[in-house]
Design goal:
- It contains 19 helices and 11 strands.
- With 450 residues, the protein is an alpha/beta fold.
- The protein has one domain: nicotinate phosphoribosyltransferase, CATH 3.20.140.
- A 6-stranded parallel β-sheet has the order 5-4-9-8-7-6. Strands 2-3-1-10-11 form a 5-stranded antiparallel β-sheet.
- Helix 4 packs antiparallel against helix 8, helix 12 crosses helix 13 and helix 14 runs parallel beside helix 16.
- The longest helix is centred in the middle third of the chain and has 23 residues.
- The chain is globular.
Length: 450
């Protein structure tokens, strides 16, 4: 038990006049995996991609809380990182696939050893939120996403405490309440010792310091249940051989934006998963909700059905999504006991336990990737006192590819549909076009929390 108070300097790098992100490894492993993948694909790596930040929470106004000069200072801190160090490169060389082959080729590591983050644009939109924009080739711009999200989340919480003029005692109350919730979650996990999970809270963590604290507590308290963190830098600090891997929706959003032909769009969506499986043997993971899971399963090619290892559920209730996935496997004469299922959206200890108890017997393995509710579980830890300010808590903010430039120099919107159609992005006519291609029943519209 601490004998002294937690203060902002214990939690926020900005309070110490330091960078929230001062190491390129302070990101999720799948960003490096997707980078490695596209560097081997000449048809993809030089596509010019425009990324944009969107605050989806209607009750948050980031520009009214974060001073612009503070945001720019942190972004500039991070942009000034010149490359990964030789020690960082050695750690990446140490990582292996399930077949014990190296996870990354030397060409990817050399790319990172000479890497510099590109320029960005920043402005305030009509909702009083900051917009961040990065427009560069995919291989150059891909890493900004996580760094930008980490910075905006940590600055929001820090500057909120400053604007509210919280005392150290009041700030300590917030941190202790957040940690009390964590310890309650640990007891819930202990009640189901077979349940395993990985910490996936990098992008919306309260801060890097707090994420480190949370993972230290989880890995010490639940060594046989909290198995990994997706954060590469923390994995290195905690001597973990391999952070948890996956890929993201951008891997489908960007290549499919190259086409207007419906058949080509569908074929490209599936072909990306095929190429990924060939590129990362043993790590073939499906993320079917990019353009609606029900369509994906109904029309999936035989080789993808037979050869994938994992399936991640990111926007559909797992109590619906897992039975749908199991039925899909059985209809294709695939034994569900050979597959791994991974819920990963808006999870906490209580709903993970419910999902595990009702669904785990259907598959070979059911494990969980839990994010914001571990590393930024701050909702209602501090009451709103000043109506000119907005809630002190985690909020839904994303950085997604919004447009690409085709070889003919024309710009076209990227699209993500999501099994929760409230998350659908970007340009409405292009979204409608993709909706007409992929429409199947089973799509929800519900409030977005993360």
């Amino acid at each position: 038990m601490r004998n002294n108070l937690y203060t902002p300097t214990d939690i926020f790098a900005v309070a110490r006049n330091e960078a929230e992100v001062d190491n390129l490894l302070n990101t999720d492993i799948y960003k490096f995996m997707m980078l490695y993948f596209i560097l081997t694909k000449p048809e993809y790596k030089d596509i010019v991609v425009r990324w944009k930040m969107t605050v989806r929470s209607k009750d948050v106004k980031t520009a009214n809380v974060i001073p612009k000069e503070s945001l720019i200072e942190q972004l500039e801190f991070t942009k000034s990182i010149k490359w990964i160090s030789e020690a960082d490169a050695s750690y990446l060389r140490w990582m292996t696939r399930p077949d014990w082959q190296r996870l990354f080729r030397e060409e990817t590591i050399e790319f990172l050893k000479n890497f510099r983050l590109p320029e960005y644009k920043i402005w305030v939109d009509e909702t009083d939120n900051y917009e961040l924009e990065f427009t560069w080739p995919w291989s150059t711009s891909i890493l900004w996403e996580i760094y930008g999200l980490k910075i905006i989340n940590s600055l929001y919480l820090y500057h909120y405490t400053k604007k509210e003029k919280l005392t150290n005692v009041e700030f300590n109350q917030i941190i202790n309440e957040t940690l009390n919730r964590l310890y309650k979650d640990i007891w819930i996990f202990k009640e189901t010792p077979e349940l395993t999970f990985s910490e996936f809270g990098t992008r919306r963590s309260a801060s890097t310091d707090f994420q480190r604290m949370v993972f230290d507590i989880l890995s010490s308290s639940l060594p046989n249940q909290c198995l990994w963190t997706s954060n590469v830098m923390l994995s290195r600090e905690f001597w973990l051989a391999n952070p948890r891997w996956t890929n993201a929706h951008e891997l489908r959003m960007i290549p499919t934006a190259l086409y207007d032909d419906k058949e080509k769009i569908v074929d490209t969506m599936y072909d990306i998963d095929r190429q990924w499986a060939n590129h990362f043997p043993g790590l073939s993971i499906l993320l079917p909700d990019t353009y609606w899971s029900s369509f994906y399963f109904k029309n999936a090619p035989k080789d993808i059905i037979q050869n994938h290892n994992w399936c991640r559920f990111d926007s559909k209730d797992p109590l619906i999504a897992i039975p749908e996935y199991v039925d899909f496997l059985l209809q294709n004469n695939i034994d569900p006991k050979t597959k791994i299922s991974i819920p990963s959206d808006w999870l906490d200890a209580i709903n993970s336990r419910e999902i595990y108890k009702t669904q785990s017997q259907k598959l070979w393995k059911l494990t969980f990737w839990i994010g914001t509710n571990l590393t930024n579980n701050t909702k209602w830890t501090w009451p709103r006192k000043n109506e000119n300010l907005w809630p002190f808590w985690s909020f839904s903010v994303v950085v997604k590819p919004s447009e690409i430039q085709r070889p003919d120099w024309n710009w076209v919107s990227c699209v993500k549909l999501s099994d929760n159609f409230t998350k659908a992005t970007w340009e409405k006519n292009r979204v409608q076009f993709f909706k007409e291609i992929f429409w199947e029943s089973g799509v929800e519209k519900k409030e977005v929390f993360v």
